[in-house]
Amino acid sequence: MVKHDLVILGAGPGGYIAAIRAAQLGMDVACIEKEKALGGTCLRIGCIPSKALLDSSEAWREVSSGGLKAHGVKVGGVELDLKTMMKRKARVVSALTTGVAGLFKKNKVTRYTGHGRIAGAGKVVVETADGKEEIEAEHILIATGSCCAELPGVELDHDRIGTSTEALSYQAVPESLIVIGAGFIGLELGSVWARLGAKVTVLEYLDRILPGVDLELANAMRKILAKQGLSFQLGVKVTGAKVVGDACEVTVDGGDPVTAERVLLAVGRKPVTDDIGLSTVGIEVDSRGRIPVDEHLKTGADGVYAIGDVIEGPMLAHKAEEEGIACVERIATGYGHVNYGVIPGIVYTHPEVAAVGKTEEELKEAGVEFRKGTFPFIANGRARALGETDGMVKILADAGTDRVLGVHIIGPRAGDLIAEAAAAMEYGATSEDIARTCHAHPTLSEVVKEAALAVSGRALHL
Q1: What pLDDT was estimated at residue 67?
Q2: Which residue in 318, 350, 441, 461 is the catalytic one?
Q3: Known catalytic residue: 461?
């Protein structure tokens, strides 16, 4: 029987990063993945392909809507070639998944293709079409990720009524699209198809969009997306969806049915913890299917750990990566840590929405006194030159210590700008620290500096 120091179930961002780091630390590492392409949902049918389509669709919108005229660029005879757009997406995905395979080879990580299942203490079985293989493992790391959550009454046929997986591969632009759920995934993919010409209607159970995002920014983003053509129905409880003739019909509690050519169900994700042998080592999941772990990512079973979407916390690829690194470093060196207070979140709409730390609502609920500084992109020279002036930066700082508690951004390249805020918060920076840091001119990052100055009422360009 083959034996490894560490066997990892799942080759998504958490699993493959953990494998590489463990190999760097001198472990004999194996990773089990049932899909032929490595990288998990994120690389194959999630983060990466959606960003490829978001960027391609934004390029189409900029050209087809006449957005380049202001730059003195006249364009005529523009046509959408969706087939080529999808091929580009596939090339981006293929390059990255192939790259992960190359990293496994470089770091001497043993790869097993098949379904991995724990088979008792220190044992894992790999099931393939050709049979089963049993492996011994001193340590087992569960990184099986998540899948799309379903909704009672919504009859998924994975074609006309589907999830994000299907919405990433439509072969034609639908005339109309209903998106069930106004979270990150729903708004990103809704934006893609709205830009390409679909009439998009978003149905959301809550009375707001982007649950968990600072409410001031969420409300501002709803207005921006409405101007881009997305229609919102908030406070709506979807009770069912089915294909009726040539249309899809979505029924809602207390209202008239809504119809469209296609339906995208985007109501979140759920952990993949079924059929991986948890009971063989006495692990029980919680009410949401998550695996309980301690502060060191260890389960209740000796030698078994879990990271990423299968445990509590935001279902984000970078969170899984940090946990994977911390987990294997803890195994190898006795120390590993994740600062959950500074994990950024990003919505890749246009403009982007990014945040790290606490929202205003969370601080008020906790009774924390704070000061707020905001600064709009419209007052920034670089944003003006780009023609990207929607949005703002908001910084929340402790009223007594001035320590930064949260940073929230709507604007161009918000997903890149939030890295400065995360780094500042990691080192316990104050708003004064950010304000006193020299930011190059002209750059979008100056909006962060101005928002920091605004915390103490001394923004320079307002």
Answers
A1: 86
A2: 441
A3: no
